[in-house]
């Protein structure tokens, strides 16, 4: 047993980690440059910033009596839970991450990467890092802008809520949720884009799965991104009608356990993706 | 270290469709041409060799390495594929720089190599322009530059002359010859047989996914014993020579050269043919200037072994 552990350790030490890190970093830069700053990504900008635009209109045209701050806090929580998690981040990540592999196969340019002296696992993880960076930059900055604009109209009361009240804690929680959502959905869509020629129908199934997940048995609830994120919400949004399904409180789980559970899920999905990319074949004629 | 490209009983099936079947090859350094009709499996062989597709069975190694070990493998191998597509919105120079930077070299070294590769394919002027605006020939050149930029030991070229004008073809062939002389492996597939024939050290004939023949062009031709060999004889009385040959040798065809100062003779027994020719020359009846085989080139071998319809004979 000890001998085997020593062999594994010796194998790992002999690997060119420095080179892989450098290649990963360079690939990430190339991918961000190619994918984030392109016209094709403009609809994702729209998805990320449409609530920001609406909140800005709200800031300009509405009066902001202090008494309305609790309502606005609930509205912001609703925007994060119902819009960003269910639509914005979901479809944004679908657009960003499914493009990374499948998009390049459709454009017939993936073979350049597969013919470069980069391990395919490094390539996949670098693409995931690039997609995550792009998604986090867009949705993270959108959440920060939403938060700032939501409370900007309240003047001193708003500043007090942010800096002396629960405001910063809520912002931190929203950002954590968006980070985990981007990583979670990103990993799932990256894998789907390697399995399916058109990952959109599969993504619709994931969306349906996420919607019905709260009423599924406990074990199945663990195979869901939204179920983990629900436990991290700093403000409980009272759901009515169909929205009640989206706010069902499942088994109580601590924030740390939920975050760790989601990270483990992401790790498992990425590990399987690394396995898949090892045997990925270039057959553009079938795309 | 092993200096050969080895295909060991390699087969590839795309579902139920045969790509290549039980191919075994051991290719030494030099220029090797893959010859075969469309859909014969040439590109599949190249894709198998570089790991773009996985073999259904068998094993491939290039200089003792497998594509699974990408870091080492692709520092020694360059592949100029037939896929005429590029990442969006990129310039020729950035395309090369992105590629070279993934080798782990620093920016100054990558810059030097990119400039050198662009110079070799004579594309320096257009390097700053977006590839989307390149002509077909320029796109072919930039792919070639990308394949050779990191100084690989093995260069795989899938139809590298497609889209090139005659001047650019000649330059490319000269470049391939030079690389071959430097001891590199060049594996070239091309439909322009006359041109690659000039520079090839050996040919691999393939059709329908099956290996038909491989080796030095002249050896392969001589092995095709059931096909009469054609010889061009330059002389002052070609019609007289043809008549004498028909009298005594197994000549099956004679055709006068267009300039009237030579004759193409096709014979089923080349040894007897040369012996009789010596006799005729000694008689002094015909003054022979030159004797040269007229059909031991890749084109003729292709015609004999594969045929114009692409089915092996």
Structure notes:
The complex is a heterodimer of chains A (287) and B (313). Chain A has 287 residues and is an all-alpha fold. Chain A has one domain (17-286). Chain A contains 13 helices and no strands. The termini of chain A are far apart. In chain A, 37% of the residues are buried. Chain B has 313 residues and is α/β, with parallel strands linked by helices. Chain B contains 11 helices and 13 strands. In chain B, the strands form 3 sheets. Chain B has a 6-stranded mixed sheet with strand order 5-6-7-3-8-9, with helices on both faces. Chain B is elongated, with a radius of gyration of 23 Å. The chains are: A mainly alpha (287), B alpha/beta (313). Chain A binds chain B through residues 16, 19, 22-23, 26-27, 30, 34, 38, 40, 104, 107-109, 111-112, 114-120, 278-279, 281-284, and chain B through 14, 47, 50-54, 68, 70-75, 79, 81, 83, 85-90, 98-99, 101-104, 146.
How large a portion of the residues of chain B is in β-strands, by DSSP E? 25-35%
Going across the major beta sheet of chain B, what is the strand order?
5-6-7-3-8-9
How large, in whole angstroms, is the Cα Rg of chain B? 23 Å
Task: Report the major sheet of chain A.
Answer: none
Q: Extract low-pLDDT stretches of chain A.
A: none
Q: What form of chain B results from the Cα inertia axes?
A: elongated
Distance between the termini of chain A: 47 Å
The domain tally of chain A reads 1
Question: Averaged pLDDT of chain B, please?
Answer: 87
Number of strands of chain B: 13
Number of helical stretches of at least 4 residues of chain B? 11
Annotation, overall tally of beta strands of chain A: 0
Assembly category = heterodimer
Largest sheet of chain B: 6 strands, mixed
* Relative strand content of chain A: under 5%
Major protein interface: A-B, 29 and 30 residues
């Amino acid at each position: 047993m000890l001998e085997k552990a020593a062999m594994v350790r010796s194998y790992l030490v002999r690997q060119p980690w420095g080179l892989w890190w450098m290649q990963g970093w360079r690939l990430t830069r190339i991918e961000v440059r190619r994918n984030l700053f392109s016209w094709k990504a403009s609809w994702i900008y729209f998805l990320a910033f449409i609530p920001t635009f609406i909140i800005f209109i709200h800031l300009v045209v509405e009066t902001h009596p202090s008494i309305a701050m609790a309502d606005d806090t609930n509205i912001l929580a609703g925007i994060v839970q119902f819009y960003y998690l269910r639509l914005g981040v979901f479809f944004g990540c679908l657009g960003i991450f499914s493009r990374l592999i499948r998009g390049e196969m459709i454009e017939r340019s993936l073979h350049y990467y597969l013919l470069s002296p980069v391990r395919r696992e490094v390539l996949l993880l670098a693409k995931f890092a690039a997609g995550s960076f792009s998604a986090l930059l867009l949705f993270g900055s959108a959440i920060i802008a939403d938060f700032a604009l939501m409370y900007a109209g309240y003047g001193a009361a708003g500043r007090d809520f942010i800096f002396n009240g629960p405001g910063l804690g809520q912002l931190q929680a929203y950002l954590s949720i968006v980070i985990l959502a981007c990583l979670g959905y990103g990993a799932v869509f990256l894998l789907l884009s390697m399995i399916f020629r058109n990952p959109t129908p599969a993504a619709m199934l994931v969306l349906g799965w996420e919607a019905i997940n709260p009423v599924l048995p406990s074990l199945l609830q663990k195979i869901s991104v939204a179920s983990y994120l629900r436990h991290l919400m700093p403000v409980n949004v009272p759901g009515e009608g169909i929205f009640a399904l989206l706010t069902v409180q499942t088994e109580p789980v601590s924030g740390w356990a939920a975050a760790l559970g989601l990270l483990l899920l992401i790790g498992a999905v990425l590990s399987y993706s690394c396995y898949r990319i090892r045997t990925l074949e270039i057959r553009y004629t079938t795309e | 270290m092993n200096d050969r490209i080895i295909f060991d009983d390699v087969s590839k099936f795309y579902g139920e469709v045969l790509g290549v079947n039980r191919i075994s090859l051991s290719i030494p350094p030099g220029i090797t041409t893959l010859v075969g009709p469309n859909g014969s499996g040439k590109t599949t062989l190249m894709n198998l060799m570089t790991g773009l597709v996985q073999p259904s069975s068998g094993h491939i190694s290039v200089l003792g390495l497998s594509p699974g070990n990408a870091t080492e493998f692709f520092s020694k191998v360059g592949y100029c594929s037939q896929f005429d597509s590029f990442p969006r919105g990129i310039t020729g120079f950035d395309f090369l720089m992105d590629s070279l930077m993934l080798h782990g070299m620093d920016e100054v070294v990558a810059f030097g190599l990119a400039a050198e590769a662009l110079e070799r394919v004579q594309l320096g002027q257009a390097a700053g322009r977006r590839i989307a605006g390149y002509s077909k020939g320029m796109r072919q050149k930039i792919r070639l530059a990308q394949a050779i930029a990191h100084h690989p030991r093995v260069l795989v070229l899938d139809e590298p002359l497609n889209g090139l004008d005659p001047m650019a073809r000649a330059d490319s062939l000269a470049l391939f010859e030079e690389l071959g002389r430097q001891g590199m492996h060049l594996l070239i597939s091309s439909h322009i047989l006359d041109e690659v024939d000039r520079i090839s050290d050996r040919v691999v004939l393939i059709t329908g996914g099956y290996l038909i023949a491989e080796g030095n062009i002249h050896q392969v031709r001589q092995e095709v014993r059931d096909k009469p060999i054609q010889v061009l004889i330059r002389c002052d009385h070609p019609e007289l020579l043809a008549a004498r040959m028909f009298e005594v040798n197994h000549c099956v065809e004679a055709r006068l050269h267009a300039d009237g100062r030579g004759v193409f003779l096709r014979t089923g027994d080349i040894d007897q043919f040369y012996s009789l020719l010596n006799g005729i020359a000694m008689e002094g009846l015909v003054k022979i200037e030159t004797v040269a085989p007229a059909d031991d080139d890749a084109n003729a071998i292709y015609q004999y072994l594969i045929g114009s319809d692409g089915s092996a004979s």
